[in-house]
Automatic annotation (TrEMBL):
<protein>
    <recommendedName>
        <fullName>DUF1963 domain-containing protein</fullName>
    </recommendedName>
</protein>
<feature type="region of interest" description="Disordered">
    <location>
        <begin position="25"/>
        <end position="47"/>
    </location>
</feature>
């Protein structure tokens, strides 16, 4: 099922025509639980990986301040919760059995030791054909993202590996995909999701608007009741391209060591929409079942960074070989 972002509550270019040249497209990925294959775009799905290419390990140092969990245990925990919520009618008490509760308690008590070095975990695979705002190096048609699901300095978050490849080069696909045994937080394991990409229009984070326009928008917000930041500027959820948000740290410049300003590649994690529901797709608006859903529709990938934040990944426009940048907002 396609996912459709509802029309913005007001056409900002009709109110402030001078903002029109700042419009930029972004592709919302709209991940939803599913069973993606190696030739599909996905979050948390299998990667199209050549059998003769070694699987990456993380050799960076780790902060090791979290609660380590086995990936197997977390999948088991999610299956229990999904079954129990799936038989809980909306508005009624959580229908978990005593056996399931005991099993959750047992999983909670596990305290596995971190292993080193850490095998990287597949996080996302995006084919250019599916994501209009994705731009890759010449000849490449798929971007793969892996991460080490442990905290690294300076942001205390997973370390990423971005790999571009030409899918036609992969004839012999790695059958069994390696993964780490443990992770630092259970929110670093993506739920396998298929994608329903949709292109939307965004406008700059408000602090980056020209000063006079920002001031006029603030005055207009008071009289109109609309909110530029949450309703009109930057889309919710996982997305490629468009503008970056700076609502946690305040605006910062993302510069590459080569001197170029980096561009937003991808937003990882965070809820698909906020309490206002402004960015909730039309198809997700009403309850589709009398029972609860787990994972929640607004958090389909189960990925959370820090206390409910998202990771914003930036790349250098000069070269795909220059290191990526990250911000947590
Ligand atoms: Zn690591
Ligand atoms: Zn650079």
């Amino acid at each position: 099922m396609a996912r459709t972002t509802p029309p913005r509550p007001v056409d900002i270019t009709a109110v402030f025509p001078e903002i029109a040249p700042l419009a930029r497209t972004a592709t919302r990925l709209h991940p939803r639980p599913g069973t993606p294959g190696v030739r599909d775009s996905s979050i948390g799905g299998p990667l199209l990986w050549p059998s003769d290419e070694s699987w990456p390990l993380c050799e960076e140092s780790h902060e090791d301040g979290g609660d380590f969990t086995r990936l197997d245990a977390e999948r088991h925990r999610r299956r229990i919760l999904s079954a129990a919520w799936g038989r809980t009618p909306r508005g009624e008490q959580f229908a978990i059995t005593p056996e399931e509760r005991a099993e959750l308690d047992r999983l909670e008590e596990e305290d596995p030791d971190p292993d080193t070095p850490t095998t990287m975990l597949a996080v996302a695979q995006l084919f250019l054909r599916d994501v209009p705002d994705l731009v890759g190096p010449p000849g490449a048609d798929v971007m793969q993202i892996l991460w080490c699901p442990r905290d690294h300095a300076p942001l205390s978050c997973p370390a990423l590996l971005l790999r571009w490849r030409r899918s036609a080069d992969v004839t012999d696909v790695l059958a069994e995909q390696p993964e780490p045994e443990i992770m630092e937080y259970d929110t670093y394991l993506p739920e396998p999701c298929v994608l329903h990409p949709e292109q939307v229009v965004e406008y700059p984070y408000e602090d980056f608007l020209p000063g006079h326009l920002r001031e006029r928008i603030r005055i207009w917000e008071e009289s109109s009741g609309h909110r530029y930041f949450s309703e009109l500027s930057i889309a919710g959820g996982w997305k490629v391209g468009g503008y970056a948000s700076w609502n946690l740290s305040g605006p910062q410049q993302m510069a590459c060591d080569c001197g170029a300003d980096m561009e937003l590649l991808l937003k990882i994690g965070g809820g698909e929409w906020d309490r206002t529901g402004s960015w909730r797709p039309l198809e997700d608006a009403g309850p589709q079942s009398e029972f609860h859903e787990y994972p929640n529709r607004w958090d389909p990938t189960a990925i959370t960074i820090g206390r409910g934040y998202a990771l914003w990944v930036f790349t250098c426009p000069v070269s795909f070989d220059h290191p990526y940048g990250m911000s947590m907002q």
